[in-house]
Structure to design on (71 residues):
């Protein structure tokens, strides 16, 4: 069985948060028509979610749920 290293979890977290940041920025801009507000809110949201995602991934890495040993 393989365990994910912290560096892989961090890389996955950063790349996913970047994608989510762009999506959030676009949606907020389309809703508000204000780039400044959209950028500020998107940054705050992504920083919070970055830490939550990292913890979530590390917790799942402790579990064997849904894993099968390859033969």
């Amino acid at each position: 069985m393989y365990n994910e290293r912290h560096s892989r979890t961090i890389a996955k977290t950063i790349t996913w948060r970047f994608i989510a940041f762009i999506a959030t920025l676009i949606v907020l801009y389309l809703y508000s028509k204000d780039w400044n507000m959209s950028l500020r809110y998107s940054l705050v949201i992504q920083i919070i979610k970055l830490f939550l995602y990292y913890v979530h991934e590390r917790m799942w890495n402790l579990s064997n749920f849904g894993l099968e040993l390859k033969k």
Notes: The chain has two helices and no strands.
